[in-house]
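The freezer alarm interrupted the setup, so I double-checked each line after restarting. Inputs confirmed:
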Amino acid sequence: MNTPREIWNEAFEASATRVADFSTMSGVPLDAVYGPADGSGPYPGQYPYTRGPYASMYRSKLWTMRMFAGFGTADDTNGRFKEIIKSGGDGLSTAFDMPTLLGLDSDHPMSLGEVGRCGVAIDTLADMDDPYRGIDLGQITTSLTINSPAAPIFAMFVAQAEKAGTHRSRLGGTLQNDILKEYQAQKEFVFPPRQSMRLVRDTISFTAAEMPRWHSVSISGYHIREAGSTAAEELAFTLANGFAYVELAVAAGLPVDAFAPRLSFFFNAHIDFFEEIAKYRAARRIWARWMRERYGAQLERSLQLRFHTQTAGVSLTAQQPEVNIVRTAIEALAGVLGGTQSLHTNSMDEAMALPTEKSARIALRTQQVIAHETNVAHVADPLGGSWFVESLTDEMERQAEELFAHLLDLGDGSMLEGCIRGIDDNWFQGRIADSAFELERKFNTGQRVIVGVNRFTEGSDEPSMNLLEITNEDEARQLQRLASVRHDRNQAQVDEVLSRLAAEAADPEVNLMPTLVEAATAFVSLGEMMDTMASVFGRHVEVPTI
Amino acid sequence: MSERVLIGKVGLDGHDRGVKVVARILRDAGFEVIYTGLFQTPATMASAAVDEDVDLVGLSMLSGAHLTLAPLVVQELRARGCMAPVVVGGIIPEHHVQRLLDAGVAAVLTPGASAAAVVAAVRDVLAAAHAAD
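Predicted 3D structure, all chains:
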């Protein structure tokens, strides 16, 4: 009988190794992993994957430096993407503006002042080409950070790629498509929860059948944490949402191993260094256990939780913004020591504005320093076995299991129902607001320190740095383009596909993706697709609570 | 009788962590706080201020649309004969503060403002409004 260490050795031998000097600065050769002397495990790549999803981790491949960008018109975003790639970034994540995130066209009255401000504006297929022009989407994977309108935006992306000659089956990337956390935290919702979940089901089924390289949902704790939750709440709510999507797809008749390998996760890296690392380790362990024991997954890929990390925007300060470079570096290091598969580092000016090209470059350089200078990526799960980190990992798991028990109770044994009920009852929203207020109270009493804000404020009144200004010129250019697309397209074709979309939306058995792709191809606008679906689905209104 | 404050989110910005924290801070400081919820327009915000007969209107703005939307809220309030002062809080770059004040906003709270600073700003603005009555 081979020991876990021996099994790991075999797996490691079979893995690719990247070219690097795997020794310390003074020449001590480093093993790719360390463990107990008796060879007992588990090791990285071994169930329940606490120590990492893969045996070789960063020895085979560093994490993907996936920088999130988007502002102004699609042309502006294209320029920033190319700058990121030139600087050594190897993944892209597209930020959409507020109207796009809420499924509104740029010429909708509510879009006034918001077009192109926080991301790229996408109204029709005509806008979908530009962000990625000159970028090989076969080489660089892209993530579409969109939720309520995920299905129509994804349809436009697929339509655009196929128009440009790349068949959908070859497209690799990620659709965020995590609607549950919108009601809980980020609040960019359009349709009521159950109708939105039908669209999530449609995208999962569509990608499972036709797009084997695509990640259908990026189950996101990032926004839950930014909205104010604790680390344990981020962990628990995110995984609970993940289980809800699993139950949704299984209820639609998909075998769990047909879609689970294409689910991925997205966590926050906040400033409490060890707690964050413990959170990632606990997440992998919980996901593996639940997927195997509760949902009967068999494929290893279904059990291995893989995640993207973003440093905590909410930890950045407007005061003495250069200090944010330090905060981001520490948070990024937690993500790496926790075994992240990809990472976005925030820029120092993001407490005030979207980043300038220079500050975004420094953020990417921060990752490159961690990757190439510090040697921390040489050894997988370097904190595994630490009494402290193992104990904190157990505690994160214990707190998460308590929250799961409450949600299962709410849902009479169903996590899907528990999550929807928790949204309807404002349970998630209330927990998050309570935790945010509690943390704020600690800042106000000085119980927790923020350098430059409630302690060490000398220098905090210095004038702020140069910030990126988004001008209203972009809004005018975008409106012009939308008007010309509406003028040039075949309106009869638009009307036909929209009436079909309405009819299909009314039949919950139909998968809406094929018709949405057709609509995208006919230059139907995002707002038109969303309004048509809303005429059947209705719109979600949150009861305001303090 | 405690003074009534209407706090809301105008436009498409869904960031509601700050607005909820501020609402609780003001409630704990003795104000009667009414929260509009998300996705208000300048017109719905102003109507709510009139209907609720509030003494002050607070706007939480994190998406960058403050220069477009905050002046519209002031205009909609005045058009309805409501003279309640408007306080804006959120991600407001320093060089935008004066432009908001010029557009009729009474005070601007920027990132990092403490609970005490929020309460003090609201009290000062209310005192100035009463003095002008």
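Quick read of the result. The mean pLDDT of chain B is 95.
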